[in-house]
Amino acid sequence: MSARNTVVGSKQSGSKGPQLRVGLIGDPVAHSFSPRLQQPALDALGIPATYELWRTPAEQLLVRIRALCQQGYLGANVTIPYKESVLPLLDVVDPLAAQIGAVNTIVNRDDYLHGYNTDAPGLLRALHEHGLGCLQAEGMISLKGYTAVLLGAGGAARGAAFALASSGIERLVILNRSLERAQLLAALIQKSYECPVFSLSDPNFLIPHSSSIIINATSVGLHEEVSPLPADVLARFNADTFVYDMIYNPIQTNLLLQARTMELRAANGLSMLLHQGALAFELWTNQSAPLEIMRAALMR
Ligand code: NDP
Question: What is the pLDDT of residues 168-207, one digit of tens each?
């Protein structure tokens, strides 16, 4: 039986199907906010499913993934360190996820496992929610006229770079600790963009353009009160600059504090977490995600 092919049990229909399962695959997973986000959404729509944490050591990854084909499994989220390594274990990979080279959502559809990346469109939805860009046909978000300054070249930055390029952004600049890694990412994006790269330790030649969006996709600020960008570099940016930090725990990183002190608009990664989760929910259930319920659950 397919766990998902049609809309799964809803409050409206009052259907009492079998208990369904969905969960997070990664190692570690205990810190994750995803159950907090997904379970209230499943409950609100009367979907008889539980969102579980599936801590998976590397040697159990294949077994864990294939178990998703079993009856009653809607699919899964995937987190560190498996977003890249799950790709060859899936039956079908969505073109955007294949391009990014990372999957964060798996859907069991007719016993075939389909992989998606909802981090990338989740970031664009988050930026739009913070008042940037405009909504176009089929939910596409245009960031035409903006310059994106992307800090990082890891998995999250890679998704962000493809998402930003697809949004029609004017200019994309990449800064990373490892310049080589930034150059590799730029080379992928450069098919459609001139994409200058800088080392994070030497950002002095960074030209501040108007309508800039600075996005932190490094883990700098996650464990220590440090900023990936020196305050004097940030201070050179125009007053219309928006600073987005993908980190959501702590809720205010050093970068965000610096930006707010300079009276720049700024937001943390909770909105991206919300939107990637809502998109994953829609893929599993074929129903619109109850966004406000998910948002309230996340803020609690
Ligand atoms: P990766 O491990 O793939 O990449 C880490 C990045 O941080 C690399 O660019 C790395 O640079 C850089 N970095 C790490 N340590 C340092 C340091 N000491 N100094 C300078 N740069 C450093 O991680 P992810 O891309 O998966 O995640 C990045 C961040 O994004 C994390 O904080 C994560 O929590 C957040 N995130 C948030 C999401 C959301 O929904 N809000 C979703 C996904 C991620 P180098 O290449 O030189 O090693």
Answer: 999 999 999 999 999 999 999 887 678 999 999 988 788 8
24 CB under 6 A from ligand 1?
Answer: no
CA 80 to ligand 1 centroid distance, Å: 11
- Each residue of 31-41: pLDDT tens digit? 999 999 999 99
Does residue 148's CB lie within 6 angstroms of at least one atom of ligand 1?
no
Ligand 1 touching residue 190 (CB < 6 A): no
The encoded tokens of residue 246 equal 């993908």
- Counted residue by residue, the chain has a size of 300
Ligand 1 center to residue 13 CA distance, Å? 43
* Cβ contact 299:271 at 8 Å: no
